[in-house]
């Protein structure tokens, strides 16, 4: 499989299926630092990134915003002094789509 972050996002429609167990087994190893959590009954990918101060946390937040805008797919972002918590899920299907794994992989790339 080509590197997850390089894969194109696919159009996600209202009735698109959520990721299967088999897809999770395929994709999750490519984003090992992310947890699959359930928030408000919705499966999400979540990771907290730490930084030396607020300015660096904010700069990372904006980099994630840029990749989200480029993909037309957006996370929940909690930006604090020294930490940014990122949650990816697909609103249209109230759950996880392959796009969320792709964007999580891209998020890791802009954290470096
Ligand atoms: C109209 C707009 O493209 C859609 O609402 C997009 C925007 N960004 C999105 N982001 C996420 N995470 N899920 C969506 O379903 C979604 N839909």
UniProtKB/TrEMBL annotation:
EC number, UniProt record = 4.2.1.96
Keywords per UniProt = Lyase
Name the Gene Ontology biological process terms: tetrahydrobiopterin biosynthetic process
What class does this enzyme belong to in the EC scheme? lyase
Q: Which InterPro entries match?
A: PCD_sf, Pterin-4-alpha-carb_dehyd, Pterin_deHydtase
Q: Quickly give the catalysed reaction.
A: (4aS,6R)-4a-hydroxy-L-erythro-5,6,7,8-tetrahydrobiopterin = (6R)-L-erythro-6,7-dihydrobiopterin + H2O
Matching CDD domains, A to Z? PCD_DCoH_subfamily_a
**Is-annotated flag, keyword Chloroplast?**
no
Any one Gene Ontology molecular-function term assigned to this protein's record: 4-alpha-hydroxytetrahydrobiopterin dehydratase activity
Q: Which NCBIfam families match?
A: PRK00823.1-1 (NF002016)
Tell me the protein family, please.
Answer: Belongs to the pterin-4-alpha-carbinolamine dehydratase family.
The protein's name in its UniProt record: Putative pterin-4-alpha-carbinolamine dehydratase
Name the species this protein comes from: Billgrantia kenyensis
Q: What is the lineage of its organism?
A: Bacteria, Pseudomonadati, Pseudomonadota, Gammaproteobacteria, Oceanospirillales
